[in-house]
Amino acid sequence: MAGFRDCDKKHFPLTDSSSVIKLFREQIEGPNEPNLALLSITLGCIENALTMNRAIPAAEEAALLRPIFPVVDLETVEALYAKFETLVRGSVDLTHYDSKFSSRELVKKISDVVWSSLSRSFKDKAHLQSLYSFLTGNKLDCFGVAFGVVAASQVLGRNDIHLALSEDHAWVVFGEDGTDTAEVTWHGKGNEDKRGQSIALSVAEKSWLYLNGQPVICDRATEVAAMVSAANPSINLTMDSIEMGALQQELLWLLYDKGHLSRYPMSLGNLGDLEEISPTPGRPPPLQIFQEAITVALNHYNNHHVYPYTYMGGYLYRKRRYKEAIKCWAEASNVIRKFNYTREDEEIYKEFLEIANELIPNVVKAVSLNTNDRAQMNILYNPDVYADILRFYDGICEWEEGSSTPVLHVGWAQHLTFSLNKFDPRTRAKIDLGRDEDSDDDSDNGSNDENDNENMKLSKEKELVEKSGPLKHKDPKDALSVVVEDLKKEEL
Ligand SMILES: FC(F)c1nnc(N2CCN(c3ncnc4sc(CC(F)(F)F)cc34)CC2)s1
Fold first, then answer.
1. Is 310 in the pocket of ligand 1 (CB under 6 A)?
2. 249: Cβ below 6 Å to ligand 1?
3. Residue 133, Cβ neighbours under 10 Å: how many?
4. Rounded to whole angstroms, how far apart are CA atoms 227 and 147?
5. pLDDT 10s digits, 201-231
C-alpha cells in the first residue's frame, strides 16, 4: 500500500524547486512505487501558488521582494492526502472485490467515487488536472478524472489499474494481463460519457481518438510523467510562470534520464517545446527531442501518432525552416490517412485545418513576398515541396474516404488552390506523378483505358500549363478552374 510515509514527510516543508526535484527523485527511485496522490497534490499546490491570482505584474512583485516560490507545508499536503484517502477508502468496500485482479465493477465504482465528487461547473479551464484541484475545488478536467481514478486505485492497493493515454483521451487498463479496458471519464463537449464501458476494438480500430489500439499504456513512473506533462505553467493567455515552467522542465529531464519518457511521445514533445523557450545547457536541442518522439512513435506505436510530426513541424515553422516543416506536415498526414474520421476527432481536425488553411498559405505568402531570400524563394520552384503539399492533401483525402463524417469543404479547396498556384508551373510539371516528364505522348504500357483517360487528362493538363506559361491569374482559384474547364472542353 502506498500511504504517506515518514520517509516522504522528511522532505517537507518544500522551500524551492530543488526540494521538489529531490522529493520526485526519491519517489521515482523507490524502493516503493511513487505515490501518485502525494505527488499530484504537491505539484498542484505549487502550480496553484505560481499561476493563480498573480494579478500583480511580476516586476511589481519583484519590487515587493516577495519570494515567488511557495513554501509547501507538510500540514497542507498531509491534510489533503488524508482527505483523499478517507474519501476513497470510505467509499469503496474492498470486501466486495476480493479477487487478486480488479474487475470492471470495481473500476466503475472507483470512477463513480471521483465522478460524484465533482462540481458541475465548466471543466475546460486550465489548472484542473491535479488532485490539488480536485480536493480544494472539486474540479477536474477530462485527463484529471482519469488520473484521479488511477491515483485512487493506488490508494486501494489495486496495482493492476493503470492509465492509458491517446492524443486526446484517457482511460484505464486493468485485469490479469492488463488488457481489459474501461472508460472512466468523459470526452469532448456534448458527448454522453461512456464510463464503465470497454474500449471495444471496433471503436478503437479506425478512430484517431483511440489511436487504433496504440495508446500509451502507463506504469506508475509513466503516470508520474503524465502528471508532470499535464502541469500547466500558464498564468493567463499571454503570460507563463517562469518558475513553474522551469520546474516542469527539470522534472521532465529527471524522468527522461530514468527512461520514463521512452514510450511517451507527447511528453518528449512537451519537453522539446520547453527547451525551445529556455534551453538547458548540456541538453540536446529541441529538434533532436522532437526526432526522438517520432522514433518512439515509429518503433513502438506502428507510426499511428500524429503529434510527434506536428510538434516538429510547428517548431520548424517558427524557425522559418519552411521546406522541412512542410515535410513534417506531409508525414503527419501520412499518419492520419490510416484512420477514419469520426465526430469525436475534432481536435486533430482543427490541427490539420490550421496547417492547411493558415500555416501553409502563410508559408507560400512569406516566400513569394521576400523574393530577395534565395533560399526561401526557391521553395516555389522545388518539386519536393510541391509533392509534399500534394501528399499532405492526399492523406487528408484518404482520411475522409470511408469515414462517416466528411472532412473537406470548399474552404479547404480555396486555400488549396491558393497554395498550389503559387508554385511555378514548370515545377508542377516536374513532380513524379508516375508519368514521364518529357514524353507527351500518352502511349500507355498496357494499362487499361481509364488509366489512359487519366494519363491523357494529366498530360493534357501539363500541356495546358506549359502553353499557358506561368499562371498569372488575377484570382488564384481561377487557375485550377481554367484547367478543369479546358479538360471538360477536351472531353466534349
Ligand atoms: F503537436 C503539437 F501541435 C502539440 N502541441 N501540444 C500538444 N499537446 C499538449 C499536451 N498534450 C498531452 N501531453 C501529454 N500527455 C497527454 S495525454 C493527452 C490526452 C488526455 F488529455 F489525457 F486526454 C494529452 C496529452 C496534448 C497534446 S500537441
1. yes
2. no
3. 24
4. 8
5. 767 669 999 999 999 999 999 999 999 999 9
